[in-house]
Amino acid sequence: MMNTPLPVIDAHVHCGILDRSSPQSFEVYARQAAATDIGGVAIFSPVMEIYDRYDPSFVDTPAWRRRRMQSNAYLLSLKPVGHTVYPYFFIWNDFAVDQLSAAHCGIKWHRHADEPVYRYHDPRCRSALDEIRRRGLPVVLEEEFDHTVRFIRELADGIRVIIPHLGMLNGGFRSIAEAGLWAQENVWADTALADRSEIREYLSVYGHRRLLFGSDFPFGDPNSELRKVHSLQLDPAKLAAVLGGNFIRLQSRIDRS
Length: 257
Ligand SMILES: [Zn+2]
Fold this sequence. Notes:
8 strands; alpha/beta; binds zinc ion; eight-stranded parallel β-sheet; TIM Barrel
């Protein structure tokens, strides 16, 4: 594997210890990534620690609110030797931005078509976005296509939005391109589970400044996801940007006051 001047940062990792559906503690990730030069990890809670994704009419309860707080506390507690952890706050319909701390490095906003919906019309949604904007936190947005478009066009002015998997679960790379979203200065992407041809096309049309390497652990394997990016044989400056430089730039604009 080629050496890069910056530590490699995996910008898309799910870790938790409450959802036991698959082994996804940070220790499991660290073992899988041990053979790589990954030195930084942006970590989100597993979906099943935030809401019941299998119940479209899911009603929030105090028990789920406690579960979210525990999940968030776990991410904030991670201080592993050998990795820098960048904890992201997984936001849900209570829009609990009062739980954000200076240690948070981003927001995870996630739902699939058959899952309970975000209350975009709740006034708390707007105030949460105002707080996210004020802090300069990037938002990893995985949502249905229509919601993605509306979120970026109507709600995310002044907020940097990362569309994961090059759009695979947001309506697809092509649809996002046709809606003109990739071209927007505030729209970023990650490489997790995206195919090589789409990564190449993205880089040739939109450049390398807003693309982040990510693995989507535990769904993706950090080794093979990293090998995939190396196999594109990008020139060293572009490779270094995608593998970590862009992430550092993304983080540098956060207001931690
Ligand atoms: Zn993911």
